[in-house]
Amino acid sequence: MVKKRIVVKIGSSSLTEKDGTLSPLKLAKFCHAFAEVKKSGHELIVVSSGSVAAGFREIGYSSRPKTVRAKQAAAAVGQSLLMQQYRFSLQQYGITPAQMLLTKHDFRNAEHYQNIFESLSELLKRGILPIINENDSTAVDELTFGDNDMLSALISGVTHADMLILMTDIDGIYNANPISDPHAEKYTMIHKISEELFDQTDTSTTAVGTGGMRAKLQAAKAAQKMGTAVYIGTFTESETFAHIAGFRGGGTYIVPEKEKQMQTYKQWIAYHASSHGSITVDDGAAEALLNEGSSLLLVGVQQIEGKFDKGEVVNVYSSAGTLIGKGKAADRSEELQHLKSLSSPPSSLVVHRDFWVSLHNSNVKEGRYI
Predict the structure, then answer these.
(1) How far is CA 329 from the centre of its chain?
(2) pTM score above 0.90
(3) Are residues 325 and 221 in the same domain?
(4) Within 13 Å, how many C-alpha atoms sit on residue 247's CB side?
(5) 185 and 159, same structural domain?
(6) Within this chain, do residues 261 and 288 fall inside the same structural domain, yes or no?
(7) Within this chain, do residues 303 and 175 fall inside the same structural domain, yes or no?
(8) Angle at 89 between CA 87 and CA 95, to 5 degrees
(9) Which residues are in the PUA domain (predicted)?
(10) 178 φ, ψ to 5°?
(11) Phi, psi (degrees; rounded to nearest 5) at 132
(12) Which one, 92, 104, 137, 332, has least CB within 10 Å?
């Protein structure tokens, strides 16, 4: 058996009763499945929703709240209750859980990003089960983040996971909504997530979740770009996570575009780093960057905008205005502007190929992941 690193994302709809409250029985069944996969020798990271479901009744709401402020209050109370339930259910298997609460801002800071990787690596080394959730009580962005779908994809990337398993209440990706269309057909294996596929997916959400199948596809595309295989399907006790990781599940698999996973620092440049300026390049430079693995030289630069220092990240655009990639600037913007203004500009380095990431045809918009 090949040891694998698996990230499992559990949405609110998979952990709750019909009235929106947390289901201890459903959570306990997941914990049994976690124990089975760890017993098989695999490494496991869990990204779990459920804090709002666990807390809203505790603060006097009769049903799941709708407003941001109320959800944040429920999450603040419910997160400790959620972890208490996980700890109770896991202790019979001798598994110690560890809580980690994150926001998108933790990914945008390079030092914090590295700390996420190191902390999770140490926990896995010690046999601890990391249970991660968005910091719902402070992160307003979370409420439109896709019910932790994108968070789980980013965690898969930073930890170089072999597979991301997205648990949902529909058993895979279909070419139409299987609930309303009896002729809808399921995809068993997807190699490329196209715009057509996005158009086919349903954008609706459940009453207890903030994500939909479209959000899961966006997360899957991000994980795929970073070199992680993705599985989307429902949870059944007869189908173990190890079984799914062995490509024997009944849902939909999205396979990575490249066998080699994206390096951690390139993931940070591509999907998290704030851009401090922009550079427009000519067609020859764009071709060299995208298809020849070359560095960007000043001779191929048409325009430099913004003020940035050496080592800061910049967006790079084609002459048509399309974002083609991001990279670390090899020099200050003022110096580059000065050199470019000379009658015979030198072939100075603008972005080295080791600090360049191509983003052509990706879901990145203006330097941030959608």
Answers:
(1) 26
(2) no
(3) no
(4) 9
(5) yes
(6) no
(7) no
(8) 60
(9) 277-364
(10) -65, -20
(11) -110, 140
(12) 92
Task: State the residue range of the domain holding 164.
Answer: 5-265
Residues 149 and 185 in one domain: yes
Which residues lie closer than 8 Å to 132 by C-beta, 6 or more apart?
45, 46, 47, 48, 99, 100, 101, 102, 151, 152, 155
* Non-local CB neighbours of 240 within 8 Å, separated by 6+ positions: 33, 36, 37, 40
User: What is the distance between the alpha carbons of residues 38 and 75, in angstroms, rounded to a whole number?
Assistant: 28
Query: Nearest-5° angle of CA 19, CA 23, CA 28?
Result: 165
CATH number at residue 260: 3.40.1160.10
Last residue of a domain, one of 265, 299, 320: 265
169 is in an annotated binding site: yes
Tally of structural domains, the chain: 2
Please report, as a single letter, which amino acid is at residue 50.
G
68 and 110 share one domain:
yes
Does the annotation list 168 as a binding residue? yes
Tell which of 248, 265, 282 closes a domain.
Answer: 265
Residue 49 among known ligand-binding residues: yes
Q: Which residue has the tokens 């990575």?
A: 256
Q: Residue 290: which CATH number?
A: 2.30.130.10
* 33 and 52 share one domain: yes
Say if CB 352 and CB 313 are below 8 A apart: no
Residue 127 gets the label, from left (phi > 0), alpha (psi -120 to 50) or beta, of left
